[in-house]
Amino acid sequence: MTERRVHAIGSYPADTPEAAMRAVLKHAGPRLAYLPDGETGARRDWIMGIIKGLRGHPDLQVRREGDYSDYRHPLNFKVRRGHRLDGASLDFGHVAAYEMAQEPFQALRTEFDRGDLDFQVGIPGDLDMVMFTLGPTGPFTHRAPFTDATIREITDIHQLGGDGVLFQLEVPAEQVFVATAPAPLRPGIARWTGSGIAELARRAPVGTRFGVHMCLGDLGHKAMISLSDAQPLVVMANALARRWPSDRPLEFIHAPLAAGEDPPPLDSAFYAPLHRLRLPQRTRFVAGFLHEGRSTSEHKRILAAIEDAVGVPVDLAASCGLGRRSRDAAEQTLARGVELCEA
Fold first, then answer.
1. Does residue 1 surpass a pLDDT of 60?
2. 8 Å CB contact between 232 and 226
3. Domain segments of the chain as ranges
4. For residue 155, what is the enclosing H or E element?
5. What is the mean pLDDT of the chain?
6. What mean pLDDT comes out for the span 254-273?
7. Residue 230 CB burial class (10 angstroms; 0-12, 13-18, ≥19)
8. Could you tell me the pLDDT band of residue 135, with boundaries at 50, 70 and 90?
9. CA distance linking residue 115 with residue 108, whole number of Å
10. Would you say the pTM of this structure is higher than 0.85?
């Protein structure tokens, strides 16, 4: 029987990376395989800080003003007339964030006696970066520079950290595309989006370790959509697994089973489609259902339904990063995960 683990998606409500990592280790340390830096400060709201930082980019100008206070107020850019956007000019900040976190990460590994713990770097998908930056037409006109910049930052971090780094590809746009399509069209859309995600891994250095965080969004702790059942997650996960390059380890796929502030459903029928998951033996399934809105007994009931459908023990996580929750809710969520691991 595979031992359950707790997975920390990325963000955590703390003031510094050291404080975030310490808190996650304190509440879930023995059950973690990877530790993110907490994505504190401007990174708390995922890529929104990166997009706001592009205001001074010489090849971009604002198309639509917005502050990303919610999904109705995005900040969008367009490429300036007569300019050409190049991947070499885009800096998403992942390398600098990695370097800043390494000293406290190494110190905490020693303090908590977790020399086996690997560092987790969250990397937004290139399609997500271009779409949220340039709007819905961006992926069809200017995706290549965002792909090139993403691969460059993965490569640079891999050169620094080697096998001690796990890259978590974060792909809400792809999952939402699949989930909002009519059911007969979902497999085709999943093949297209899955191929794009797998291409990021294919272009990374051989041996680079990956996980995938499928997501429904969590801006202001609200999801972009909610699901009627887990079927769109299964379609996306299976398409991705089929296209993944064999020489780039895919260590986990995370599926969001709650939707922002909305807790995971109690009806076992919601989770029944998970029996159609077809992941490689080496790829763990991370069930994203830990939520401050459910009791311990409700979590146990949900976990039983998930594992009955999947057929094997699963790893446990929230539906997204914990940074948009209160500190109490974040601590409670991690502690609940540990408790369920031991159930």
1. no
2. no
3. 17-55+92-341
4. helix 143-161
5. 96
6. 97
7. buried
8. very high
9. 9
10. yes
